[in-house]
Task: structure prediction
Amino acid sequence: MPLPGRFVRLGVNIDHVATLRQARGEFDPDPLAAAHLARLAGADQIVLHVREDRRHANEHDLRRIRETASLPVNLEMALTEEMADLALTLSPDRVTLVPEKRNERTTEGGLVLTSDYLKSLDLFSERCAKRGVRVSLFMDPDPEMLGKIPPSGVDQVELHTGPFARSFGTPREEEEFGRLILSATLLSRRGLVVAAGHGLTPFNLPRVLDIPGLAEVNIGHSIIARAVLFGLREAVSEVKTLLFRTCDGGGT
Result:
């Protein structure tokens, strides 16, 4: 079990509120209203992925949330010139760099740190540092790829928990969870903050909270899906209560 008293931050990803809005191409539901409700329910940060094709959230959403949401804002983005300019103009508290494919429904895997990507990352990180924007990478729990993370410019890694979530309750669960533990341990030894996200639900989250050194979880689809049935404040509060109970050593 997690050490008693360990605090794990909750980031609420409101992309799918914008997805529902875009289904009609009108104004409701408003992601900004969702951000305020998430804050009232105990969220520690708001996560928003502005894609190049603007399929759900857009820069107008980001600007409004950045200016009025009263919570730290974590912008998920691909490392392109256009998105880099957007991030540096609006200065979210953090950017989380993710891979992006036009034909994917959601982010399908972690970053691949090629030499060219690392060069772009180095330049972008320097620009972010001047604006006080922290940089995180969305990575698969792959020790070899994690070993390529540069020694400076990045302070956090969000481990891709999708494979674990898909294997939860199957014979492969232990293998996938072991990869997360090993990766988190390696990251902590390097002084990097460990976060986790993708596919997390109230059912598999307690196991994820056993990851050593875990400081943050980011949850979107599960919270918004449950909010459709139970309300957004209730859905966020459910997860926040689970975090408190588990991290205080009280179990579930």
In short: Strands lie at 9-13, 45-49, 73-77, 94-97, 134-139, 156-160, 193-197, 214-219. DSSP finds eleven helices and eight strands in the chain. The radius of gyration is 17 Å. The chain has one domain: 9-247.
